[in-house]
Design a protein that fits this description.
It comes from Salix suchowensis. This is non-specific serine/threonine protein kinase. The chain is of the alpha+beta class. Strand 3 (45-49) and strand 4 (55-61) form a beta hairpin. The chain contains six helices and 20 strands.
Amino acid sequence: MPSVIFSGVPYMTAFTTYQYGFKVTRESDGKFYFTYNPSNNSELMRFQITWNGFEEQKRWNETAKKWQVMQLQPSEDCETYNYCGNFGVCTPSGSPKCRCMEGFGPRHPDQWRLGNWSGGCERRSPLQCQRSNSSGGEDGFKTLRSTKLPDFADVQSISSDPCREMCLNNCSCKAYAYVSGIQCMIWNGDLIDVQHSVDGGNTLYIRLADSEFGRSRMPTYVIILIVLAGLAFLAISIWLLWMLKRRLKVLPAATPACTSSKCELPVYDPSKSKEFSTDASGSTDLVIEGSQVNGSDLPMFNFNCIAAATDNFSEENKLGQGGFGLVYKGNLPGFFFISSA
């Protein structure tokens, strides 16, 4: 059987002696034997666990007459057991080193922000079999590549597709993996001590609810802010519309005299008014086309009346040009006015 490595120690391929040394042998009676043979049989090797929990591999140096350490584990934080807690993923080169698996969030967000990741993560959306109603679609799997697989897997001697179906049909199943030489691995408990490796590692398929697929999840506080902003915008718009209606002045309707094709202009006779005073500051009542307005207001004429009074804005009635346009003189019976166009 060819040499193999520990699935949780992907960097073992960096050492030539590992590629030659580790072997798994299965006997006919079902027993497995795990052995290590150095590439150079003349070398003396030893593995040991130190009193403080470190694993050491040492080689005897004949010249120096002492044991030399070839490798020492754990060598950094991510190799500390379950450093990021359950359902957390530790990346040695990450900043921060810990993150939750996709579909999970920190169990204790306040501690997580302070850099204490031991509390781990929890699922955001319950699986289909965990929901009280049957709404939503079938669960699916998210792929997590290049990982040191979690601890406490149940191993089944089946191929990849049946392995997926077995996990999907078991409500307790949290994830599965298919590893050459091991075959189907299924996790029915929490996913513990998961690491992400830049090189090597295996692919882990994490079971998630249907709601975690096909759309990006927006944080609750962002949704609340969007709703409040929309309500505020609607309230301001209604208020502005109400103010505009209050301020808006509707021009009087055009009279038949000024809208007729002949444009027969009404004749204004001051003597027919109830009271007429040449004093501009006095109270004068003006009668315009049968409509009475107070003397303090200006009389209103529509466009047809002004066009008729200025002879359709002829050059003969043009007085000049001001800041707002051309200025014309016009005549109406009983009135004299100047129009700006």
